[in-house]
């Protein structure tokens, strides 16, 4: 029994050593390309940056487990198991699917390979299956994280009569590749439309992780991370910005922050002022939330009723009335 365990440990050690010695080939001529052209089918980021990823626990915890599994792959193999090989990320546009793939690659200290399947299919119809297979084979040649973006472009339900025969054949290729995918590399597929995926494809993934729009606590964390690039941002302004960004995705937040940052440089003004001013122009519909916004803009940013009215696009008496209602509601809560 002792000899058997020693042999098993030695075998796993040899496998691990062999895997560590295997690397992707970055030299010209080694990358998968379209036919005889020099156009690369895959983008490679040797040092992906996933800093700033903020997701709720239902998504962040399984991602962290994937990393832990890889770190303890030897323990899993000795127990007769294996780490997660394939992950399917789904959710609306801009919620962090690509960033999650970057975070996984960074955490695992692996290069990130990215393939936009929608562009491959539309640009190379007729050779799509061969192109995709060449990218998958390349990703197997050394440890990496392979991101297949817009996965629904090739993995649609095979009962969809609107698709041509080749795309249905590609689904069969994907089914075989998912079954045979080695645990030396991590395959991450991303889709905005999980309902379009072939059920047999979805079942082949080791993990299905759904991402959603960030809740207030995540929006606050995202804004605070963005604010670390400049420092000294008024926290009360960020609290107000969180209130004004309900329904925003993480990419929406990054985009509006970048706009505010540019304006703060051009206008020599605090970035938080520019942020709130930009968001105020997208004020909510009349009601308690808009009244609270008016009150916060006055008390947090020191804006006059006329300034608020000009930004939001209402009359200053409307702002005054809203502030009065908000103050009344606030005092009523304090009385309780």
Automatic annotation (TrEMBL):
User: Start and end of every AAA+ ATPase domain?
Assistant: 83-215
User: What keywords are assigned to this protein?
Assistant: ATP-binding, Nucleotide-binding
Alphabetized CDD domains for the sequence: RecA-like_protease (cd19481)
Entry annotated with the keyword ATP-binding: yes
A Pfam family annotated for this chain is AAA
Alphabetical list of SUPFAM superfamilies matching this protein: P-loop containing nucleoside triphosphate hydrolases
What GO molecular-function term can you cite, just one?
ATP binding
Protein family according to the UniProt entry: Belongs to the AAA ATPase family.
Q: What is this protein called?
A: ATPase family protein associated with various cellular activities (AAA)
In its UniProt entry, the species of origin is given as: Naumannella halotolerans
């Amino acid at each position: 029994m002792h000899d058997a365990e020693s042999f098993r440990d030695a075998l796993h050690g040899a496998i691990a050593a062999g895997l560590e010695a295997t690397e992707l080939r970055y030299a010209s001529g080694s990358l998968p390309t379209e036919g005889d052209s020099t156009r690369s089918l895959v983008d490679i980021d040797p040092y992906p940056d996933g800093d700033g990823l903020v997701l709720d626990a239902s998504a962040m915890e399984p991602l962290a487990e994937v990393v832990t599994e890889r770190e303890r792959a030897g323990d899993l193999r000795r127990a007769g198991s294996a780490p997660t090989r394939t992950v399917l990320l789904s959710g609306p546009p801009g919620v962090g699917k690509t960033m999650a793939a970057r975070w996984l690659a960074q955490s695992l200290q692996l290069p990130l390979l990215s393939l936009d399947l929608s562009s491959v299919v539309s640009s190379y119809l007729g050779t799509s299956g061969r192109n995709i297979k060449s990218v998958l084979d390349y990703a197997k040649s050394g440890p990496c994280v392979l991101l297949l973006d817009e996965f629904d472009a090739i993995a649609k339900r095979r009962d969809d009569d609107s698709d041509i025969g080749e795309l249905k054949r590609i689904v069969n290729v994907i089914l075989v590749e998912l079954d045979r995918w080695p645990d030396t590399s991590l395959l991450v597929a991303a889709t905005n439309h999980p309902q379009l995926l072939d059920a047999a494809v979805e079942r082949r993934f080791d993990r299905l992780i759904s991402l959603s729009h960030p809740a207030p606590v995540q929006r606050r964390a995202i804004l605070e991370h963005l604010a670390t690039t400049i420092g000294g941002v008024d926290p009360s302004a960020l609290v107000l910005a969180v209130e004004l960004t309900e329904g925003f995705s993480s990419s929406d937040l990054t985009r509006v922050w970048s706009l505010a940052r540019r304006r703060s440089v051009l206008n020599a003004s605090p970035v938080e002022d520019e942020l709130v001013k930009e968001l105020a122009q997208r004020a909510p519909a009349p009601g308690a939330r808009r009244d609270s916004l008016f009150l916060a803009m006055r008390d947090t940013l020191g804006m006059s009723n006329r300034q608020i009215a000009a930004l939001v696009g209402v009359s200053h008496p409307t702002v005054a009335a809203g502030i009065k209602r908000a103050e009344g509601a606030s005092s009523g809560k304090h009385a309780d």
